[in-house]
């Protein structure tokens, strides 16, 4: 891909499209099938909605078939794997992580860093990063109806959208920046050193 060109232009996404997307493997854990179901609901309410999945995986054929079966082919792109996911994240209007289970959700800080409002599932470690109606909107696992409702809510409420982005950026700046991680590591090492010193 020629990154000197605009990624949106390269993907031939309409200028006025409202882009909802996710970065993740096309596999059961990341629930791409649920994303397609939610996309169908969203499209019925937001005709200019456009959908993007960035990632590869064993469920590619099944997801492609579901996109076709739901008549979303003209407004849905399966972009495949990329070394530069941020180039795709930048063109999203809403970023999604709707995993069925999730250890940490490394993509969430990337979404926040890119100033994207987030819709995610309320499972495992995700709610420790995304707080509902604070820096994102949460939905139950496999609940495509609630996921769609959350997307529509953000679409319709610019004030909420701005708040989620602002709080998300604050979250990533406070918890995930390099200086903070370095300081936490230094504090930990100092604590361990003091503990060792006290033993002698």
Automatic annotation (TrEMBL):
Keywords: Glycosyltransferase, Transferase. Its EC number is 2.4.-.-. It is an enzyme of class 2 (transferase). InterPro entries: Glyco_trans_1. Residues 9-170 form the Glycosyl transferase family domain. GO terms for molecular function: glycosyltransferase activity. It holds the Pfam family Glycos_transf_1. Coiled coil: none annotated. This is Glycosyltransferase family 4 protein. It comes from Anaerostipes hadrus.
